[in-house]
Amino acid sequence: HEIVGVVTETGSDAKEFKVEDKVGVGCLVGACQTCEYCKQSLENLCSKMIMTFNSTDTDGTMTYGGYSDKIVVHKRFVYRIPENLPLDASAPLLCAGTTVYSPMKYYGLTEPGRHLGVVGLGGLGHVAVKFAKAFGLKVAVISTSPSKEREAIERLKADKFLVSRDSEQMQVAMGTMDYILDTVSAYHELLPLINLLKPNGKLSQRSRCNFLLCHYYLV
Ligand SMILES: [Zn+2]
């Protein structure tokens, strides 16, 4: 579902693309395109959406995603990749990238100079740090693994690294963050993260968590 490649053939109505264009395909290859969600470009909420892999296509066959050598995709679900962007570097943007870029833009976690905490430094977290630095944010990576500090600071240029199991470090950082982007997929407590936020801070949850109601602005 992070498919990149080159166009080899186009349908008569797919005039936006031409042979040899660099393109990508994300998690979706189909949707009804007529419901209220599709009309708002929210095809991921469409009850008839078709996933790129392990889904039933309109002809009743199974979708196999990027495991195939070639794929036929409706133009609505094909994205142009700029000439100067290498294909291998583009692929993660089609799932991990959009999973963090979309909430950052949609909920306004992008104001330069603001302080963002990125929880977890896996596939989602590492692109989140790169986007955040490009937006001009001050970035703290929050992780259970002290071994990730070097990658966070030296390679991804994060400003700060917090070990979430170190209660002293977490205590010092309380109330210092404007935004938190939580990318951890394992079940974990939200409260220690919420404590890091300033009043009216925003926390965007990208995965499952033990949900706790609170007066902070959860997005
Ligand atoms: Zn729809």
UniProtKB/TrEMBL annotation:
One of its GO terms (biological process) is lignin biosynthetic process. This is Uncharacterized protein. It comes from Amborella trichopoda. InterPro entries: ADH-like_C, ADH-like_N, CAD-like, GroES-like_sf, NAD(P)-bd_dom_sf. Its cofactor is Zn(2+). GO terms for molecular function: cinnamyl-alcohol dehydrogenase activity; metal ion binding. It comes from the Eukaryota. Keywords: Metal-binding, Oxidoreductase, Zinc. Residues 123-204 form the Alcohol dehydrogenase-like C-terminal domain. Residues 1-83 form the Alcohol dehydrogenase-like N-terminal domain. The keyword Kinase does not apply. Pfam families: ADH_N (PF08240), ADH_zinc_N (PF00107).
